[in-house]
Amino acid sequence: PTIALLAMSIVLPLLLFGLAAWQNRHDVVREAETRVERTTRILHEHALKVFEMHQLMINHINERLHSLDWSDPADIFDMHQLLAQLARDTRQVSTITITDAEGHATVSSRAYPVDPTINLADLDYFQALKAHEQALPFVSHAVIGRQSGEPVFNIAQRLWSREPGTFGGIVTISVRRAYFEDFYREIEQEYDHLVILTRDDGSVLASEPRNSMTRLPSNSLFRQALENPSNGLLLTPSVLDGTKRIFGYEKIGSYPVVIGFGVTWNAALAPWWRNIMGYGLVAFLSSLALLGVSGIAMRHSVLEEKATRSWRETAALLQGEMTERQRVEEQLRQAQKMEAIGRLTGGVAHDFNNLLTIVIGSLDLLSRRMRDADPRHQALVRNAVDGATRAAALTARLLAFSRQHPLDPKPIDANALIAGMSNMMERSLGETVAVEVVLAAGLWTTFADPNQLENALINLSVNALDAMPDGGKLTIETANATLDPGYVARHADLVAGAYVMVSVTDSGTGMSLETVARAFDPFYTTKPVGKGTGLGLSQVYGFTKQSGGHTSIYSEIGHGTSIKLYLPRFTGRRPVDVAAVEAVVEGPALQPVDTTILIVEDDDLVRRFSSAALRESGYKVLEASSGAEGLRQVEAHAEIALLFTDVVLGGTMNGRELAERAVVLRPALPVLFTTGYTKNAIIHQGKLDEGVNFLGKPFTTAALAAKIEALLRTHA
User: Fold this and answer.
1) pLDDT above 80 (res 679)
2) Which fold, 346-400+589-716?
3) What is the DSSP letter of 3?
4) Of 311, 92, 127, 348, whose CA–CA distance to 197 is shortest?
5) What CATH architecture does domain 1-299 belong to?
6) Summary mean pLDDT of the chain
7) Could you tell me where the DSSP H helices lie in 67-98?
8) Pairing between strand 138-139 and 204-208?
């Protein structure tokens, strides 16, 4: 018995050490694989948005070419200016070129007139497009641009022809490889990573770190994997540097392009090696403790119970430390995910929203001028507006999830807001869903953006409707709640205290534990393809976090789901009446015929649309393309009744600085700001500054006219 007790004192800690090391290694590898899959998805979304943006640009150029008079040099010069402006506004674009059916360049973004010796007829994408018409653009292999002299790859598509089946030339966008490589360099800071963007035939378009290889070998596992599913994971030595990596890949939408992301096997296992040292120390100390306890037990059997209790306490302490470490690691992963999404959305939101403003605004004006047109043509315009609006909603949802959407919070009575929405929600959800509203008496005032709170409740109600295909019951409830320190310690960025709770509960199908754990992840959805973007709950999560609150999910398969929003209690002045704030000011309609509006916008196309929209509404318009020019207009024109300015302007003066200087000259001058995305000019800590009037991009003619009319009434 003595020898057995001594042996167990050594063997048992070693056995526990081995089991813990094995389990931790499995967890560390799975965590690395999950991280690779998540980062691959982020890189996929980035590349997809870039390719879709280029598709929009090509379509816009084709539409303009339909009205181009090739015999008019002024028309050709205007087209050159359009191409040059698009290239300047989109930093990944190096050159935009239009060629005729023989491959001769006719218009280029780089020079006017275009060099007549430039001929693209020998290039692979020209020959492919000339031979066959295809719906998606052709993506070429990486080359050195003939006009720019820098590393690029080309995205090309046929020019639209008035005569079906004829070939009239192509439009080509040369994309800078450096744009992707700079983004890939910053996407992952902790691991030694590799990113590669290739065509599905193995031709390398961009990589980080940069490598001289132009095509993947046909015998590489990654190249072979491209012929199978559209995404997956590999554990293989990299063909670029020979290092063993965990590698994830995913095809970019319907384009013949694949993104791959990998981390080295050694970097993935680094946390495990660090944990092994800790486990070994615990095992060693445990062995010494057991040997000591065993010696005492052999001499003093009365201490046996105490030794057993000591071992149990040590094991419990070890388990507690492991649980705490896992909680902290999960919070770190969530913060890193938010940061990565924030970089992605912030990088493209401004340019994308400018383009959407042009598209939506132009379609809006077109639809107004086509009221008597062929209904079939009107239907085409409506379809285009719907598509652009969905793109704008997707950008807004991404910004909301990454907590970069500008909020305009107010002290509000949640009971009054929900009561005002209840009738509309009953009609929207249909007769098969019974809506019950349970409003708490004496509900505290909360401080939040009322529009975003309404959007959150609508998102949750639509999700609940999808979970009840055969009908059911939807309950919206409010209550006062106090979150104690024990609860908030398990959630990042949450402060103990008083909150207003708003819950949405359905009697639907419910969610599994795995689905609940990923419900707030961006782009994660259980709905069929085409039925959802996976950003609804992510938007709700981002809104509550940005408002200083918290979101929780309670669900059980077959017994429905309850989602609770906790918004901070407001103890300042009395709540505003949301309906009164959002109501249109009563009174006779304004007569804008003698009212002058100054538009300051550095994007020529957005400025042209804004001017056309206001002139169509009856206003006189002055224009400026920079802050300095706008300030000169304010000094020179006393008849200016309102300043409408973009926040992000080229030059040394942004929109906020322009407004401050203009108000010094004209103290009563109302100012309306617009932007697609900005971090710190008029928005701080995610909220609009006090007293700021704001209209987000993209906007329509009606929205712009309504906002300006409301401001003019306020300052009348």
Assistant:
1) no
2) Rossmann fold (3.40.50)
3) H
4) 92
5) 2-Layer Sandwich (3.30)
6) 79
7) 73-89
8) unpaired
Report the C-alpha gap between 694 and 656 in whole angstroms: 12
Query: Rounded distance, CA 398 to CA 393, Å?
Result: 9
**pLDDT for the residue 134:** 80
410-579 CATH choice from 3.40.50.2300, 3.90.79.10, 3.30.470.30, 3.30.565.10: 3.30.565.10
Residue ranges per structural domain of the chain: 1-299, 346-400+589-716, 410-579
Q: Is the predicted pLDDT of residue 581 greater than 50, yes or no?
A: no
Specify the pLDDT at position 367. Answer: 73
Question: For 166-219, how does the pLDDT look when each residue is reduced to its tens digit (9 = 90+)?
Answer: 888 999 999 999 999 888 888 766 667 888 898 888 889 998 887 777 788 776
In terms of DSSP H, where are the helices of 226-374? 265-299, 304-369
**Residues in CB range of 407: below 8 A, 6 or more apart:** 448, 449, 452, 543, 546, 547, 686, 687, 688
Residue of 125, 130, 86, 137 whose CA lies nearest to 108:
86
- CA separation for the pair 10, 287 (Å, rounded): 5
CA 352 to CA 57: how far, in whole Å? 11
Beta bridge partners of 194: 262
Average pLDDT over residues 492-519: 83
Average the pLDDT over 530-534 and give the result. 51
Mean pLDDT across the stretch 335-354?
A: 60
